[in-house]
Amino acid sequence: MRKLIRTVLLVDLLRGLWVTLRNQHPKHIYTEQYPAQRPKVAERFRGAPRLNINPDTGETLCIGCNLCALACPENLIVVGTERDPKTNRKVLTTFTYDTSRCMFCGLCEDACPVDALELTQDFELASYTREGQIWDRQMLEEGPRPTQYKS
Amino acid sequence: MAGSTFLDSSELVLNMGPQHPSTHGVLRVILKLDGEKVIGTECVIGYLHRGVEKIGENRTYVQFAPYVDRMDYVAAVSNGLGYCLAVEKLLSVEAPPRAQVTRVILTELNRIASHLLWLGTHALDIGAITPLFYTLREREEVLKIFEKYCGARLTTHAFRIGGLQYELYDGFEEDVAKFCDMFLPKVDEYEELLTDNRIWVERLKGVGILTAEQCKAYGVTGPVLRAAGVAWDLRKAQPYSGYEQYDFDIPIRQNGDTFDRYIVRMEEMRQSVRIIRQALERIEPGPIMAKVPKVIKPPVGEVYVSIEAPKGELGYFIVSDGSTQPYRVRVRPPSFVNLQALDQMCRGALVADVVAIIGTIDIVLGEVDR
User: Fold this and answer.
1) Least Cα separation, residue B221 to chain A (angstroms)
2) Tell me, what DSSP letter sits at residue A54?
3) Contact status of B166 with chain A (Cβ, < 8 Å)
């Protein structure tokens, strides 16, 4: 009998409706208005790669040890070095990083012994061409260069 | 029938998927229908096949770890745990206690996140749109904790062989405790929306029944098995990562229908919160990485390790030939095995129930096809 009354009075449906009604309060708005409102990603976020330079001297921190290239599961890092004839030390010449194949696992970052290669908080990696996804040394050090278009 | 034409026959073969919104990915099911009734089904899988097991043979042990996250991408942390445990067993090392407790917290959070996504999409399939927004809202909190901890939200790569790469961030305990406090009332809220709702009950009760014997015959594990009345949970049956120290119950139900699976998963989320709360008290200072050689070269041998992933038993079978790369990696994904029972569950059901049944198995096609 009680069940019948509850069925007729739609108690179950009204209880559910009350839940949705409670959640109408503006404090329950979670939508992020993305381009206007930029999300703040965590400190450990793994995004765009960066090759750090020494802020005092402007020289690269990379010692060209090739450990990041060996650690990478996708083999997307190519490190080019040459030996300095005077000091007989390895000097970095080129560094390419293919972000189109990168899965941002962070293994290259972990492998780096001098904290030169780093995955930063920058997460906007879109590009108009596939070639634009392959970052060279300059791009890795200074950040991506926006393309200038003329009308 | 003599003299009948094909028009007299009411049998119809219908393709459902791979681009069907309620097949939860790219599953293609060939349905043989008699009017509205399903006579038989056949799953065509492999649409999302990427050859993960083959990739494993061409990567070192450390390099393969990010790939396992991409199988069951809804529960990437559990996948990572299973793989790390398997390689650790090959190497005969054990993660330090602090790492183990952190692993338990993160995998249980991941279980909640996985079940939340399941609940939202399953309810959406049935026609209840509201729970999806609520569940994704709560799941976001879990993903935020993941992002703060390891830098990624979905394909986390949180664990390393031998322990953890990242130390807990400042305020991790508070974040997790806050989530637990916030989350339990929310589960009640979902139940208020769904459990008594007459449409929900009518659509789910008695649909897709799988008895305990059938479950065992098909090798079905996870909440589907527990809803059929078998209290089988690898966290209790073969404890790993120190699960034997935690006090929690295995929720079981007897009918083995879609509604019972829903109830079991809801209860599992509450139990996960219980485990997380106990684990939070067990965090103690200490190392997070066991002594693992820099170049991982396990001795020749083979190992099978299985864990209780949110969807069921997730097993890794690794054969080592003593080199830096595995000779063979075989994954026993819960979704793949559970999906094989689809035909049994669908026979005699209606087309609309097929959607409910696919939803209730909780498959992730990344894991089915690998």
Assistant:
1) 30
2) -
3) yes
Over residues B86-95, the pLDDT tens digits come to 999 988 888 8
Is the dihedral angle over the CA atoms A20, A22, A24, A27 positive or is it negative?
A: negative
Residues of B in contact with A46 (CB under 8 A): 151-152
The number of C-beta contacts closer than 8 angstroms across A and B is 66
Give the contacts of B151 (CB within 8 A, at least 6 positions apart). Answer: A42, A44, A45, A46, A106, A119, B166
CB contact under 8 A, A107 and B196: no
Q: Name the residue ranges covered by the structural domains of chain B.
A: 51-331
A143 touches chain B (CB under 8 A): no
Right CATH for B51-331 from 3.40.190.10, 3.40.1050.10, 3.20.20.150, 1.10.645.10: 1.10.645.10
CATH fold, domain A49-142, is: Alpha-Beta Plaits (3.30.70)
- For B99-137, the pLDDT digits (tens) are 989 999 999 999 999 999 999 999 888 888 888 888 998
